[in-house]
Structures are given as C-alpha cells and as structure tokens.
Amino acid sequence: MTKLTQYGWSAYWNMEWSKEDRGIHQPGRITADFGQMYKVYTEEGEIWGEMSGKMKHELQHGGPVPAVGDWVELQMLEGEERGVILGVLDRKTNISRQKAGAKSAQEQLIAANVDILFLVTSLNDDYNPRRMERYLIMAWNSGVNPVILLSKADLCDDADIKAAEMELIAPGVPVHVVSALENRGKEAVTGYLKEGVTVALTGSSGCGKSTIVNWLAETSAQRTQGIREDDSRGRHTTTHRQLFLLPQGGLMVDTPGMRELQLYDDNGGGFEQAFADIESIGKECRFADCSHEREAGCAVRAAVEAGDIDAKRLQNYRKTQRELEFQMKKEARGQRKLNRMDRSAKEPVRRKSSYWNHRLTDE
C-alpha cells in the first residue's frame, strides 16, 4: 500500500498535526476537487470526503475552502469508504488568482502546498511572453519556485531563440524546451520529480499540460484533445484539478486551462520580482515616484530607447501595475463591506418599547 509519506507527509506536517488533540481523527491529502465532494488520500487508501456542516458555515465568514493539495483532518465513517472533512491544516503555499466575473476582489485557490510550479506555454501561435510575465507574478506571490516549460517544440523551428527570450524576462528561472511527441526534455523535467515533492502545472487552454502529465506518468492518466487549427488555441480538456502520484516519486497537480489570468494580489512581492530589471533601473530615475511615462530624467525610458528593455515589456509593466492597484482597491472595498456586516451581526436586536402599549391598556 502506498504510504502517506509518498503523498508529501513529512516531519513538518506531523508537527502541525500534533499542535492539537485530534483524537481518533486521521490526516489525509486532497487529490481531486469535484465541487461538493473531494477525493482524499489517507493511510488506508483513497476515499470520498465532504466538508462538515460547521466548515460549510464557516465559509460565510472567510473560512478556508479545501483545495487540491491540502492536508485535512478527517473523521472516518464506520463501514464506509467516506469521511467528513473537519478542518484544513495551515498551508505552506497556495496558488491563487482573481476569481473571474467577481464584482469585488475574490480569491480563487488553484492548488495548495505546492513546491514547484511549472508554467507551461506552447511553442505555436499561442506563444506569448507578456502572458508569461503574469504567470511569474502569480508564482512569486504564491511562494513557490517557478519553472518555465516551452511545450510542443515539434511545432516550432526556433525553439532555442524563444527559450532565450524567456530567459531574458525571467532571470534565474529555469527554462526547458519539451516535446512529448519527440520525447524531448524529459530528463530535465523528471529531475524535479523527487519523492514527496509536489509540482503543479498551469497555463492557458491547450498548452499541453495534460499531455505532459501522461508523458511523465507513462500512462493515459489524463484525457487530451488537439488544438484548433485556425488559431492554434486549445480546447478545455481538464475540467477539474487533480493530483497524481508519478512513477518517478513526485506528485503532480494538473489544472484546467486558463483563458485569462486575473491577478489576485501582490502580497508576496511577485510584481517586483517579475519586473526586477525595470524596478532596479527605476531607482536611477530623477523622481522617486516616476511613472516611466513622460517625466524628465526617466532612466527606464532611456533604457528602452537604448534597447536594454523591450518597449512591450515596459507597456505590460504599466498595465499590470494599474491592474494590481485596482484589485487592491476592490479588495479594500470588499473588506470594508464584510466588516460592516460583521458589526451588524454582533449588534443586539433593538426591540420596540412596550411603554405605549401599556399606556393604552391602562387608559
């Protein structure tokens, strides 16, 4: 039987578990999210799990929503291969984005307790360095180590040139060119898949994430589809997040493709890390609050004119900066609204005095 340690249980998690008296409850790791139900791996094997009523109630007050990769506390149901999820252990890392369509800033958790994040982009017409800058911000904010995978190298004649371009926008981040069809780059990628290490895949729809899972798992673990020939865009294949145990010993989380990535926040300083070159040169500007647009003595615009910084990269820097500022304002408004709701809930109900009723009766 597969041990819990193969799914990432370690001395660290054992210490976290021991902080409370858990009684006869058991730890488990969420391996798949189906909305109301979860697949959870335990020492006895994989079971179905569902949140307790208390947990569901706490969601209304900002309680944690279980996610793939979470370690949870389980109460097993006697005689059944099911359990009740009573709580979530504090996460080491969490990969988040802004929930699509929300009026206020709302976090959508993609995966938890991930060690390495593979940022996948395909080497066809969908290749986009500007999008990769956004994924890097998400990775740095999540506290995970990003690795860039340039997939479908068999469809590209200048893969090495594009890899060099990615290395320029992501200094220090490993970049690997891969092709499942040609079995290219597999040795480099499998080097990250050590026992107990959790790797997640993220990228736009059709970039080849599920193909990479099958390639590394050496089985058809995930269903795949081809891309549309008219625009090289992918079609959704993965419909839910799922964690796989790979033969190399590592764990891999496959996630549904993203049509767009709306950044949630910048608490981890991901923006500064993703645009470290612009931030560094910006310190040489004449004005400390330089926006790098029209100010005199702007060192960043001078670097663009000299060819040291790509003009499109600076444009994306400004755009992303404005987006994060807007999201912070939305989040602040949402927090103020929650605070008002909490205060209202705590205020005692004021009943109308019965004084006038007594007077009418007495008279």
Please, could you describe this protein's structure?
The structure is a single chain. The protein is α/β, with parallel strands linked by helices. About 30% of the residues lie in helices and about 20% in strands. It has eleven helices and 13 strands. A six-stranded mixed sheet has the order 10-9-8-11-13-12, with helices on both faces. The protein has a five-stranded mixed barrel with strand order 1-2-3-5-4. The protein starts with 10 loop residues before the first helix and ends with a helix. Residues about 225-240 and about 350-363 have low confidence and may be disordered.
Which percent range describes the beta-strand content? 15-25%
Regions with little confidence, pLDDT below 50 for 5+ residues? 223-238, 351-363
Question: What is the 3D form?
Answer: globular
Structural class: alpha/beta
> How far apart are the termini?
83 Å
Can you give the helix content as a percent range? 25-40%
Task: Name the average pLDDT.
Answer: 82
Following the backbone from N to C, one meets helices and strands in this order, namely HEEEHEEEEEHEHEHEHEEHHHHH
The main β sheet shows up as: 6 strands, mixed
Identify the strand order in the major beta sheet: 10-9-8-11-13-12
Total E-strand runs: 13
Radius of gyration: 25 Å
Q: Number of helical runs?
A: 11
